[in-house]
Structures are given as structure tokens and as C-alpha cells.
Specification:
- By secondary structure, the protein is of the alpha+beta class.
- The protein has 2 domains: 96 residues, Alpha-Beta Plaits (2-Layer Sandwich); 58 residues, no CATH class.
- 36% of the residues lie in helices and 18% in strands.
- Strands 2-3-5-6 form a 4-stranded antiparallel β-sheet. Strands 1-4 form a two-stranded antiparallel ribbon.
- Strand 5 and strand 6 form a beta hairpin.
- Helix 4 packs antiparallel against helix 5.
Length: 182
């Protein structure tokens, strides 16, 4: 017994004093995902990448909003949302303490306004996403006029965009013009 006590005193404490002292976090630890609604464009890339379906995106066309939500009770802290986010709006923190009094407190939401189609007026995407895509595509333009035209095209819903593309092809194809003239 004396030999055992000597060994215990030599080794010291084997446990941490958590929760009275902060726990040591290892490098590369994946904790709670933090969402920044200011940087988020509501593109739903993170919701597609989430294997646990902890992230969701619901669109309310009547209200003109898209609601992004995360349920920390379902999250497995895999980090795929962080990897898939094009704007870096989601980042994993070192926080792992998620105890709450009510189950609803595990769900965090952010609401985004929808953009309306320039052509038909129907809501089709988050306004921040349309602005983001228009800005990126316009950066490849060779003139300010082309950049403005590209930004304007980004503000058209996919259905109207297809119709406009067909009309543009018909105008530029002389064989088609002759057939439609008959």
C-alpha cells in the first residue's frame, strides 16, 4: 500500500479540474459552428453539404424571405459547412459546451430578403446571393457597359433567363430568322 501511495504522489493528478478550470483544447479541435449572417449570402451550399441535416433553408415567397437555421442538437461538428461556404460565413469555434434549458434554444436562425426577378417580378433567390454573383461575374467584364449588363442578367430568374437566351439566339441566328419570317 505504501508503494502505491508513493507512486500516486510521484505521478500527481491524472484528471483536470474541469468545469472549475478551463479544459485544454487540442489543435484542430472542431467545436460549435459560428454563423455570421452579415457575410452569409444564403446560397444553401452549407445545407447541401451537411451530412446530419443540422442546417436548413426555408423560403417564404409570400413574405419575401429565406430563413437559414442550424440545430446544434443534430450537428456532429464535422466542419463540412465551413468547407463549403463560399464567403466564409461559417467557422468552427473551440466552444463545445452546448447545455441549454430548452430544446428550442439549440436552434439559431437568420432571415434574408429575397430578390425579385426584373422580368416577371417573382422572388427567386436571396438578394445578397444575387448581388454576390453579379459582382463576381461583372469582375470578368471588359467594359463598364458589359459589367452593368451582366449585373442586370443576374437579377433575372432562371425561367426568364432561359426565355431571354432563346430570344437572343433567335435574333443572332440568320437561318432561324428566315424560318420564322416565312
Amino acid at each position: 500500500m505504501l508503494k502505491f501511495l508513493k507512486e500516486v504522489l510521484r505521478v500527481g493528478e491524472a484528471t483536470q479540474k474541469y468545469p472549475f478550470a478551463p479544459a485544454e483544447i487540442c489543435e484542430g479541435f472542431r467545436g460549435r459552428p459560428e454563423h455570421d449572417p452579415i457575410r452569409c449570402i444564403a446560397c444553401a451550399a452549407c445545407t447541401s453539404a451537411c451530412p446530419a441535416n443540422a442546417l436548413s433553408m426555408k423560403t417564404d415567397a409570400d413574405a419575401g424571405t429565406r430563413t437559414w437555421a442550424i440545430n446544434y442538437g443534430q450537428c456532429v461538428f464535422c466542419g463540412r459547412c465551413e468547407e463549403s461556404c463560399p464567403t466564409g460565413a461559417i467557422s468552427l469555434t473551440k466552444d463545445f459546451e452546448l447545455a441549454v434549458a430548452r430544446k428550442d434554444d439549440l436552434i439559431k436562425r437568420a432571415v434574408f430578403k429575397l430578390a425579385y426577378c426584373r422580368s416577371c417580378g417573382a422572388p427567386f433567390a436571396a438578394a445578397k446571393e444575387v448581388e454576390y454573383v453579379g459582382r463576381i461575374l461583372a469582375s470578368y467584364a471588359t467594359s463598364p457597359e458589359e459589367a452593368e449588363r451582366i449585373r442586370a442578367n443576374a437579377e433575372v430568374c432562371p425561367e426568364c433567363k432561359r426565355k431571354l437566351d432563346v430570344e437572343q439566339i433567335a435574333r443572332s441566328n440568320p437561318v432561324q430568322q428566315m424560318e420564322t419570317a416565312r
